[in-house]
Amino acid sequence: MGKISNLRARLTPETVNSWRATTVWHEIEDYAVITFGLSLYALGWTAFLLPYEIASGGLTGISAIVYYLTGVEMQYTYFGINVLLIIAAIKVLGWKFCIKTIYGFTMLSVMLTLLQALFHDAEGHLPQVLGPGQDFMACIIGAGLCGVGLGLVFQHSGSTGGTDIIAAIVNKYKNVSMGRVILLCDLIIVSSLYFIFHDWRRVVFGFTTMFVLSYLVDYVLNLAHQSVQFFIISRRHELIKQALLCDLHRGVTLIHAEGAYSGDDVEILMVVARRRQSVEIFRMVKSIDPKAFITQTKAAGVFGEGFDKIKV
After folding, report:
1. Other residues' Cβ atoms within 10 Å of the Cβ of residue 179
2. pLDDT tens readout for residues 167-178
């Protein structure tokens, strides 16, 4: 911590202010993407799953089942149960996760309310936009929208609550993807559909929705988990090193080299980071030295502290 404090103390005020502005911007970006993901999720349910009486897993699936049985709109059941779950999750996941979770399930409840009001016909029913008898296509499209939306929410450290909270807790302590934890919870919920409706058709559509959704959640998350390697050559390499260590919390390796043409000593910074941090690293380097020379390559596999665990 002493080295980090010394490095941070040597940063220029302009650089510090630039990083603070970048941090605020990234928070705004996170909430914007989370909101977009929630919009896709709510659209999948409202336009495709609910009109065709398709139930999936998770708390939204439970809320949909309550809606089919009682007529109580799913957002009310969904919001009420989430309030109880978030109280139990605050100590384990911390306030930062829970704040985004509270935002997530509150915003999803609002969007479900707005979209259902928008889609309801004159008789108060949700229309089957694909026409009657298109249950399977509605199942695939709805699950696709929900899966991509949920993946975007998870990618930016958000949550829609419900079984997402359980998945996030397990993922924090175990090397198990969130999609797989959600899949396990959904298996239990979807299997119970038969005992409620005594209709195997609902169960089949529920499982189809569940598998498509879980696959797309993992697919979107795995895109963000890909790693990249940077080689950075700059006359202001010391400031760039400090920024990488202090602000981005990325390890840096210094490679001492010599320019073949100039004969000058050169310091090369080697950095390995997640692909989602690429833009952030480019912006940071540009703010310090617009003339820096940077190469970026994909890393097929990165294992160790801060990345994936070594598996044999």
Report:
1. 23
2. 767 776 777 766
